[in-house]
Write a structure and sequence with these properties.
Elements lengths: L1 E6 L7 H14 L7 E10 L10 E9 L5 E7 L2 H25 L1
Parallel strand pairs: 1-2
Antiparallel strand pairs: 2-3, 3-4
């Protein structure tokens, strides 16, 4: 599974952040290796330099083999919180998708 991390100009996409997010995705989504070919993470700050509640957004898109891509979105007051909320959501959606594939 290929993992790609993208940040906007307001979120520092340091190598530490990229490595941490990539490791978490590989650990949490490893059971879907046969199903998912690529995972893209997009982290952004909706208010740019202004502060605000839940202004960090994380979109995780999973490319499922022979299916349409699946995307989930989460917002929080930090990029890390938004990432973990989105990671939980994508796990639930992939579990459901995997169950549907097994039924057919």
């Amino acid at each position: 599974m290929l993992v790609q991390i993208n940040t906007d100009k307001n979120i520092e996409g340091s190598s530490r952040l990229v490595e941490f997010f990539t490791t978490e995705i590989n650990n949490e989504l490893s059971r879907f290796d046969s199903l998912v070919t690529r995972v893209e993470v997009h982290v952004s700050d909706e208010n740019a330099n202004k502060t605000g509640k839940n202004d960090k957004k994380c979109v995780i898109e999973a490319r499922v083999e022979k299916k349409q891509p699946i995307a989930v979105t989460a917002t929080a007051d930090s990029a890390e919180k938004a990432f973990f909320e989105a990671l939980e959501k994508i796990q639930r959606v992939l579990d459901t998708t995997l169950d549907k594939i097994k039924e057919h």
